[in-house]
Amino acid sequence: MKAITFVTQKGGSGKSTLCISLAVAAREAGHTVCILEMDRQATISDWLDHRTEEGPEVAQIDATQLEAVMERLRESAYDYVFIDTPGVDSAGTLAAIRAADLCIIPCRPTPADLRAFKPTLAAIYRLEKKFAFVLNQTPPRSYRIRDAADGLAVLGILPDVNIVARTDHQDAIGLGQGVTEFNPKGQAAGEVRRLWSWIERRMQAGRTARRTVKHAEAA
Ligand SMILES: Nc1ncnc2c1ncn2[C@@H]1O[C@H](COP(=O)(O)OP(=O)(O)OP(=O)(O)O)[C@@H](O)[C@H]1O
Ligand SMILES: [Mg+2]
User: Fold this and answer.
1) Is 156 in the pocket of ligand 1 (CB under 6 A)?
2) Could you tell me the CATH number of the domain that includes residue 166?
3) Could you list the residue range(s) of the whole structural domain that residue 75 is in?
4) Quick one: three-class SS letters along 94-118?
5) How many domains does the chain have?
6) How far is the CA of 11 from the centre of ligand 1 (A)?
7) What are the tens digits of pLDDT across the range 6-24?
8) CA of 214 relative to ligand 2 center, distance in Å
9) What is the pLDDT of residues 42-99, one digit of tens each?
């Protein structure tokens, strides 16, 4: 069982949206997945209420429960546990980073988002966790993407796919679906599938934040 934590203090950057659609994409790729929701906003539980398709299982937990729940899940048949965290720093955020095999930091190509993840990144470095940024809600084409990608690539790892701002993401969540279910042939679905296969490969790679911190210090 591998744990993937979606984390950044910046609200609205796409943690829950990516957590949901990647969980669905991972299931479609043949994996068993459950989601731990640590955000009282309950975006994912709300999504589940509208869902008619099967899986993934979702459990709402708080920081005090995480360790025990992870202990049980390690004995379970799940291939992946996805952990969705709130957009504010909390005891739960740190616990969720600690539990992760990989942290995903969604980031919009805006100055505010590019500044806001710094405390998250500091915690990830401290705990020597593997991580990757994901540029989310990007325009289809803009100098902003290149600038943001260059900056993020210096600090850490960036997938070879960005997630463009597309209404498919919003409509899918509203219907209790992932984008790959909502519009399987759409561009949003294609990007999420590519992102999932990149994440799968990244999970196999050995590089940790300890090595990438040197790049951050040099930057
Ligand atoms: N790629 C995308 N294209 C279009 N809309 C998006 C995309 N990603 C996220 N959104 C929309 O942006 C809003 C915020 O996304 P989401 O709730 O996933 O962010 P979050 O990081 O979980 O926020 P919070 O920190 O408040 O939990 C939602 O309305 C969602 O539908
Ligand atoms: Mg959320």
Assistant:
1) no
2) 3.40.50.300
3) 2-218
4) HHHHHHCCEEEEEECCCHHHHHHCH
5) 1
6) 8
7) 999 989 999 999 999 999 9
8) 30
9) 999 999 999 999 999 999 999 999 999 999 999 999 999 999 999 888 889 999 999 9
